[in-house]
Amino acid sequence: MADERTYRATVGSQEIDLPLVQVAPELSIALLICVDHGLAFSEQAGRELAAQMEPYGVEIVASVATMGIPLAIEVTRALGLDDYAILHKTPKIHLADAVAEPVKSITTARDQKLLFDRARIGAVKGKRVGIVDDVISTGGSSRAALNLVRRIGGTPVVFGALLTEAGGWRELLGPDAALVRSLGSIPVFRHQPDGSLVEDWGQA
Questions:
Q1: Going by C-beta distance under 8 Å and a sequence separation of 6 or more, which residues neighbour residue 179?
Q2: pTM to 2 decimals?
Q3: What is 42-184's CATH topology?
Q4: DSSP per residue over the chain, as a string?
């Protein structure tokens, strides 16, 4: 750890300091917010992640709003594609009749749904889909994204992430964990009685 407030993470060829945020009485996480790291970071990370995903013949990129959108754009561009699909978490007027999938995230206190615009199903149905997200933590959002893509007729062939967090996501994703390609990994942090934090690379 750089200190008790940040964690130095390696994301492909880049290093960034992530703030440590307490999410439970005895648990903190290193929080990656892509939009806080600028265009150059996203462009480089997108190129490097696209290089790992390219062998899988991705025909369209899908990602979860909102933090996954910059990454989806950069990976789509780097793969030489022109379209990407967004799985929304916030209800909007065009999502009144959306296809919905329940999801619970470690960084969100309440249960949510992933929503996909029925008017966009044709962009995904029958396609080889590369799903991207900034971080795979518990695997809850990732599993919901995989389920939703399959429900609308797409075939997930690879799941690209900037970072994976600890190891609990592997059990939750089951066989789909084999789809994951990432640019780095980070632990979670357990609070000790003396106030210190200990890295935990196992179950979140």
A1: 146, 156, 157, 158, 159, 173
A2: 0.92
A3: Rossmann fold (3.40.50)
A4: --SSSEEEEEETTEEEEEEEEEEETTEEEEPP-GGGSHHHHHHHHHHHHHHHHGGG--SEEEEETTTHHHHHHHHHHHTT---EEEEBSS--GGGTT-EEEEE--TT-SS-EEEEE-GGGHHHHTTSEEEEEEEEESSSHHHHHHHHHHHHTT-EEEEEEEEEEESSHHHHHHGGGGGGEEES-EE-EEEEPTTS-EEEE-S--
Question: What band does 91 get if pLDDT is binned at 50, 70 and 90?
Answer: confident
Six-digit token pair at 72?
């989806």
In this structure, the number of other CB atoms found within 10 A of the CB of residue 44 comes to 17
- Per-residue pLDDT of 38-82, as tens digits, reads 999 999 999 999 999 999 999 999 999 888 899 999 999 999 999
